[in-house]
Amino acid sequence: MTLATVITLIRLTLIPVFAWIAVRYGRSVDAGSADESLRWLAVAIYTLASVLDGVDGWIARHFNQKSLTGAILDPLTDKALLMTGLVTATFVNWGIDWHLPLWFIILVIARDLEIIGGILILYRINKKVPIDPHWTGKVCTVTQMIAMGWIMLKFTQIDLIYPTILATIFTIWSGYEYYMMGYRQLPGKSRS
Length: 192
Prior knowledge:
Elements: H1 3-30, H2 36-62, H3 68-91, H4 102-126, H5 135-152, H6 161-183
Helix pairs in contact: 1-2, 1-3, 2-3, 3-4, 3-5, 4-6, 5-6
């Protein structure tokens, strides 16, 4: 097992720890005595898991530690971390009615299911699925993380609706781009 894969496994174990601490924080808010140390601990763990994503990728590339396990586990860990963060940002009480709207998490899940479903359909038809990440997908992830961070860090000076709208635009846009990318891979469709 490579060092990069070990770091990915550490990231994977940080996800339930983050969720548990975030839920504990939400319960302290519900009880009327918000334990801000729990909020900051949740932010720190989430940040550590996010930073380690860059570290494991750098190690894999620079020390030639690429592996099939890492190639599968790393993106799954990325998605699990992001989805756990978004779910806690939606359902955990961060105070002052400060959470992502339910429709937003439904939109994010629908987009991810569309992409996974498209990959499965294309694989069944073509026996291969060349996937080239689109820039809107990367911006989508960044804007979703910004909206989530807005909640966890309690940036109440600017209304949460603004980062949520920005993330919504890129979630829909990237979903459309990936749909079209898959559509063009169907037999008889233009590849351009």
